[in-house]
Amino acid sequence: MNQVGHIFAKDARHLRWEIGISLVLTAAYLWAAPSEWRPNPYDHPGLSINDVQKLVAGIASLLVPVSWWLLITRAVQDENLVGDQQWWVTKPYEWGNLLGGKLLFLAAFILVPIFVVKCILLAQGGFSPFASLPALAASLAVLLAFAWLPLMAVASVTSTFARATLTLLGLVVVLLIAGAVVGFLVALGGFVVPWIGYLVVAILLGIGGAAIVLQYRWRMAWTARIVMIATLLLVAAALGLSGNPLFVALTDPRTSTPLQIEQGPPAQIHATGSFAQFAGNARIGVSVPLHVSGMADGTAINFDGVRVTVEAPDGRHWSSGWQSIWGPMVLAGADQSTLPELPLQVGKDFYNAEQAQPVTLHLRFALTELHVGQVTQLAMPSNEFAVPGFGICAPVAHDDLGGFHNLSCRAPVRQPVRTLVRVQWSDEPCNAGVSAGGTIEGEAWAGELSSSPAGFALNSIEGVNFPLSNSDRTENVGNTSRSHPRYLCPGSPVTFTPYRIVRRLEYDATFTDYRMQTMAPPTGSRE
Question: How far is residue 259's CA from residue 300's CA, in Å, rounded to a whole number?
């Protein structure tokens, strides 16, 4: 232990300037970070302090990771692990003590300052750091897996700062390419199972950490490099195979349910979009109206993914792998005529050959069943208010001070659970009062459907954004159409209804006599 302390003290003295730069940048981010969730005042002329803080926060959020890279690389390469001519090899350093000294250095000058910053920001945001300790621990684990350990691994298998920099740039390029490929596959219809993020973090922590231990224990640089490459390949394989039917079956087992999913009448809201930009026009978007029944009171169903098989009367058929579906969320007892149609992808050649006749549609859905939680209903305050289990919200004022036009909300560390927010709009400014017959309902979904490993953002406060429906009204004056804002008035009702996951399941449905209808082009499209 004395040797660990000696190595730590030596590195702290030797790298005091790098440590100082990193701590100054971290402190600058701490000062500026509240601007990321604090609304900008409308009545402040010119450049406000909030604008300055946002600029500083943006710059510091980029420079802080650069300071980590500088600090970790310099600390690890102070006792170079590549080659066999290093001076420190002749000193009585045990590899475990050397590694322990470097880890203590990382903890003292990177992990602890970031933890303190996150706790202070939580307190400034109105949240208790002690109540958020599990989420904070998850956030630090993600930073360790995606930032600190990879930087340490790269530094341990390179002999100079320049080579470490080139290697890191190469890894960034590889990650960008991998991200583009994964995004392309998801856009093509890939389906990422919810728990894949935990698997990726486990791979990076376990095998990536093993590469570092291997290099410190035996100083076998090429073996450690191969382990690092294997780690990247495993992460890519996990992401690429996450839509495999076996993975989905592990997440969404088939269970008995009274749920019934049938083909419904044409919906008021048609699915929009196009898949022409993906797969070289190999697929085309079609939409299917749904009708869902058999749901228990207080429950909701979310459509996560679907596998499609289409059979034509002439015997031809077309099948797909798992396709992601962004919604819809179906609530028990809701008016389903207002639901958007289900968007699907079908092979373009098959569609062109069979669109004139009815086909049989076999669908296997990946569903999430949710149950309503504790509902919070209150009268709209004119200042900040807390919503249990959701976060802290504040009404956002109109420029003309005639009322509020939105809600600005924040949550500790991660997004809240999926929550339906309902408000009542007024067509008239609030100083004219709210007429019971003149209120218009508005709603929006906020939060995440399922909890995932906390992100690696520096800020421990998450902004919760949700555009409320019916926020504008249209007035026709002659041949001209004008849009006017609606108002959220103090005292009007606001309701937060959380939905928590009960289970995930697969469900099979067959629609006969289905005629393939292409999806409507997005708004503003020339298609």
Answer: 11
pLDDT, one tens digit per residue, over 483-517 is 888 888 888 899 999 999 888 888 999 998 888 87
Render pLDDT for 246-274 as a digit per residue (tens, 0 to 9).
667 667 777 777 888 888 876 555 555 44
Instruction: Give the separation between CA 378 and CA 428, rounded to whole angstroms.
Output: 21
Give the separation between CA 483 and CA 3, rounded to whole angstroms.
72
- Predicted confidence (pLDDT) per residue in 143-186, tens digit: 998 889 999 999 988 988 888 888 888 877 877 776 666 666 55
CA distance 223 to 34: 45
Using a 10 angstrom Cβ sphere, with 0-12 exposed, 13-18 middle and 19 or more buried, the burial of residue 30 is buried
Mapping DSSP onto H, E and C, the string for 145-213 reads HHHHHHHHHHHHCCCCHHHHHHHHHHHHHHHHHHHHHHHHHHHHCCCCCCCHHHHHHHHHHHHHHHHHH
Give backbone dihedrals phi and psi of 326, rounded to 5 degrees, phi first.
-90, 80
**335 vs 140: CA distance, rounded Å:** 43
Contact between 267 and 339 under an 8 Å Cβ cutoff? The reply is yes
How far is residue 497's CA from residue 88's CA, in Å, rounded to a whole number?
62
| Model confidence pLDDT, tens digit, residues 411-455 | 999 889 999 999 999 888 787 555 444 578 999 999 988 656 566
The CATH number corresponding to 260-370+504-518 among 1.10.1660, 3.30.70, 2.60.40, 1.20.81 equals 2.60.40
Q: Are 390 and 447 in contact (CB under 8 A)?
A: yes
- The pair of structure tokens assigned to 166 is 């080139």
Question: What crossing angle do the helices spanning 95-106 and 2-14 adopt, rounded to 10°?
Answer: 50
Residues 93, 8: Cα–Cα separation, whole Å: 13
State the first-to-last Cα distance of the chain, in angstroms, to the nearest integer. 70
Radius of gyration, alpha carbons of the chain: 28
Distance CA(362)–CA(344), nearest Å, equals 12
Contact 504, 368 (CB under 8 A): yes
User: What six digits make up the tokens of 14?
Assistant: 């030797």
Whether residue 241 contacts residue 195, with contact meaning beta carbons closer than 8 Å, is answered with no
- Which pair of structure tokens corresponds to residue 19? 């440590």
526, pLDDT greater than 70: no
Tokens representing residue 255 in the block: 């269970």
Which residues pair with residue 494 across a beta bridge?
Answer: 378
Asked if 421 and 466 count as a contact pair (C-beta separation under 8 A), the reply is yes
In the chain, list all ranges with CATH 2.60.40: 260-370+504-518
CA-nearest of 376, 454, 370 to 418 is 370
Cβ neighbours of residue 177 under 8 Å, at least 6 residues apart? none
